[in-house]
Amino acid sequence: MLLFRILCTMISRILWQNIPIPPTEDSFMQPSQQHPTGTKPRRRFSGRVVFGLLTLVFGAVFVVSLVQIVRISSTRRAAQDEYTTLAQQAFPASVESGDEGGLHTALAAVMAQNPECVGWLAVPGSAINYPVVQAANNEKYLHRTYLDNENPAGAIFMDYRCNADFTGEHTIIYGHYMQDGTMFAGLAAYLDEAYLQANPDILVYTPEGLLRYRVVAARKTDMWDAAYRVDFSGEEDFAAFAETYGAPAGVQGLLTLSTCTGGEKDERTLVHAVFEGMEAY
């Protein structure tokens, strides 16, 4: 806003400065003959003035764009730093592989920083490694991070309709597609069948234990897709629903990860995974 005001002031000064006017027919008239009504000839703008105006305009656009780029970069860095620090706290190097007790203690400490945390989601082979929260609606964490900082990256969050302990038949988790590759941007890789086959595992750490899921399908769709359903009339209804998205017969639970595509506003990428079991800490 300040830059806009300065630009307007500078343009106004240029517009109203005295600019030489080329001689005209009126210039050779006697004073008594010139403009009896008292009107004055309109000022004419020289090429120098036009060039100056254009320079100011393009300069202002450049400065505003540069400020925006720096601001966006700084904001993204802030979110990335927050989640990197949380991951280091949840999975500290001091906790040796196989030390489930130490891992549970460290993870519990991170979860305690946000009472709405329901677990930690990790997708081996990708950069997806984030805490999962659940609010009373699906809007709160769209632009607020895990530590409640306002940020476009938001947080990874569970649909408010789902069971917070992951015991529901269908659990949906959302995350933004960030252009820098963070949050749920990595889900797009699952649209490649070869990648899906090579990276089928999804891990969810909860207070009760480690939940294991296996990816069975990934697809591009829209926000109105029937897969966003969480209520079922019975086992047969859920089984038919799950089989539609690649789940085998007898599946006990389905996990769907959802993100936008970075393209059209309504487009979504969905990754479906089946529950394979829980390991106690």
Written account of the structure:
The structure is a single chain. The protein has 281 residues and is an alpha+beta fold. It has a domain at 97-279: Sortase (Sortase, Chain: A, Beta Barrel), CATH 2.40.260. Helix content is 31%, strand content 20%. The chain is built from 5 helices and 8 strands, in the order αααββββαββαββ. It has helices at residues 2-16, 47-90, 100-111, 193-198, 235-244; strands at 117-122, 129-133, 156-158, 170-174, 201-205, 210-222, 254-260, 267-279. The chain has an 8-stranded mixed barrel. A hairpin with a 4-residue loop joins strand 5 and strand 6 (210-222). The chain is globular, with a radius of gyration of 30 Å. Mean pLDDT is 84; it is low at 26-32.
